[in-house]
Amino acid sequence: MEADTVLAVTGLTKAFGGFTAVNGVDLAVRRGSIHALIGPNGAGKTTCFNLLTKFLTPTKGSIVYNGRDITRDRPAEIARQGLVRSFQISAVFPQLSVKTNVRIALQRKRGDSFDFWRSEDVLKPLDEEALRLVEAVGLSAFAELPAAELSYGRKRALEIATTLALDPEMLLLDEPMAGMGREDVERIEALIRKVSHNRTILMVEHNLSVVASLSDRITVLARGQVLAEGDYATVSKDPRVIEAYIGSGVGHAH
Amino acid sequence: MADIASTDAPAAGLSVREIDDGTERLHRILMIGIAVALVIAPFVTYPVFVMKVMCFALFALAFNLLLGFGGLLSFGQAAYFGMASYVCAYAAKFWGLSPELAILSGTAVATLIGLVFGALAIRRQGIYFAMITLALAQMAFFFSLQTPGFTGGEDGIQAVPRGRLFGLIDIADDRALYWLVAAIFMGGLLLIYRIIHSPFGQVCTAIRDNEPRAISLGYRTNRYKLVVFVLSAALAGLAGATKAIVFQLASLTDVHWSMSGEVVLMTLVGGLGTIFGPIAGALVIVSMQNFLASLGSWVLVVQGVIFVVCVLTFREGIVGIIAKWSKRPL
């Protein structure tokens, strides 16, 4: 394995009953890069993503993160090792305030919070950093509102702030732009570029213009297998990729 | 970035922050109000009635901690309430322990049972979790039924001596006992309030709101759920043990599944997920049982009707509705 590979996947396979959603996928994500996973609907992107984040257990294959085999680890364990995921459906804690959402993540630095006898005042020192992160995603004016009251785009922004609060070494973003308006897309795109400094990002994304402008490397999946890999210029000219997108009748290959 | 933020929520942060501080003050005032009411109550009504309300209110508060703030629906809370009641009664009557030690041993046993039952149940979620807690509680019931040497079988453990608190203070008189029960109740209420507003409580609320997200942040959520389950079992046990000293009786009723149902009813009527709701719910249900006692078994029918009306028309419960009107978390 190359020294600068942070995440190495070999022969990753997941079968649901008779259906093989992901079939022998190999993937090597270079440290510090933005790597995109794309493909037409039903290509197995989301399954692949859930396998990498341990929310599903692979049928076959191995996942090595920072030289350590994490194939059988539990989701909470890999988060503790700095591999943190986002969700496709916006994942916030709806009844907690925006600030508290971020603070829940910051609380992880204390280790486990089993101290039920202490006042939450002990968390006050975290407020400053929480507010700084809230500001970084442009949500300062909503800091004390319950997250449920935020618009969809702002929930996504809050989710990114929460994820960043963990200061993860590697981010796994599940369709960060899904369901967003144009101005939100630009905002989140700028944000991802900003946070990619010193971090590795692997994302599943449908919006190909975002993929084109952000990614260093792209892996194209189709029918559960790797179809092509390379930078955007290479991949977008690959006849098999064009065929897969047009052949599947999906228009968003623009 | 800032332009989007400033368009539709002018100074929202400031005003909400003010309400937040106000809420804290309001809760403090309500706590003092409850304490004052408890001081006055024995002079205007029967101490035994108020003690019964306090025992059930503490039981309901413990259940509400589990469901309202931990998101875990248990149908087996009677196991902890009832077993603690038996152990306390047995310890006071046959080992001659002083009341505070008897109550502590009852609570300790409930905590242990909670640890074992909880460790088994939290592996499943939702309705399966509820079914496992119910099944385990039924086992506790049949254990109580089959061991008359310990529980007194159908008769229960009767004529439990109240004894002397710390071996000194005679609490045989209702008025003397009242202050002990009031102190236990207020202590339990304050502890639960603290748990909800602790770093632990914050994580529990997050898990209740969105468990996969909490996991993805690195929280081992099952451990948090187990801790909240054990805390709830311990407090339910404290309520059951105290009840055994108040009524000088531990019986199969305490460990029967209908007791688990009753605590759900109290919590829903009062307001699930509110802080003070379970107290209001216990007050309403216990009062109803007392004043409608002449109706005999028909009390159950009235209770059933109230439950249905409650779920159909005001699901937020008494305190939940007040909180909605006043726009303040209570």
Which keywords apply here?
A: about 250 residues; Rossmann fold; 6-stranded mixed beta sheet; 10 strands; about 25% strand; B: mainly alpha; ABC transporter involved in vitamin B12 uptake, BtuC; two-stranded antiparallel sheet; disordered N terminus
Can you offer a commentary on this structure?
The complex is a heterodimer of chains A (254) and B (330). Chain A has 9 helices and 10 strands. Chain A is α/β, with parallel strands linked by helices. Chain A folds into 2 domains: 1-82 and 170-254, Rossmann fold; 85-167, P-loop containing nucleotide triphosphate hydrolases (Rossmann fold). A 6-stranded mixed sheet of chain A has the order 6-7-8-3-9-10, sandwiched between helices. In chain A, strands 2-1-4-5 form a 4-stranded antiparallel sheet, with helices on one face. The model of chain A is unreliable at 249-254 (pLDDT under 50). Chain B has one domain (45-326): ABC transporter involved in vitamin B12 uptake, BtuC (Orthogonal Bundle), CATH 1.10.3470. Chain B contains 16 helices and 2 strands.
Class by alpha and beta content of chain A: alpha/beta
- Widest sheet of chain A: strand order? 6-7-8-3-9-10
Oligomeric status: heterodimer
Q: What is the third-level CATH name, the topology of chain B?
A: ABC transporter involved in vitamin B12 uptake, BtuC
Work out the strand percent of chain A: 15-25%
Described by the principal axes of the CA atoms, the overall outline of chain A is globular
Which outline of chain B best applies?
globular
CATH topology of the largest domain in chain A: Rossmann fold
CATH architecture classification of the largest domain in chain A: 3-Layer(aba) Sandwich
Gyration radius over CA of chain B: 21 Å
What is the CATH first-level class name of the largest domain in chain A? Alpha Beta
CATH architecture annotation name of chain B: Orthogonal Bundle
- The string of secondary-structure elements of chain B, in order, is HHHHHHHEEHHHHHHHHH
Main beta sheet of chain A:
6 strands, mixed
Q: Tell me about the biggest sheet of chain B? A: 2 strands, antiparallel
The average pLDDT of chain B is 89
Q: Residue ranges of chain B: pLDDT <50 for 5 or more in a row?
A: 1-19
Spatial gap, N to C terminus of chain B:
35 Å
Radius of gyration of chain A: 19 Å
Count the domains of chain B. 1
**How do the strands line up in the largest sheet of chain B?**
1-2
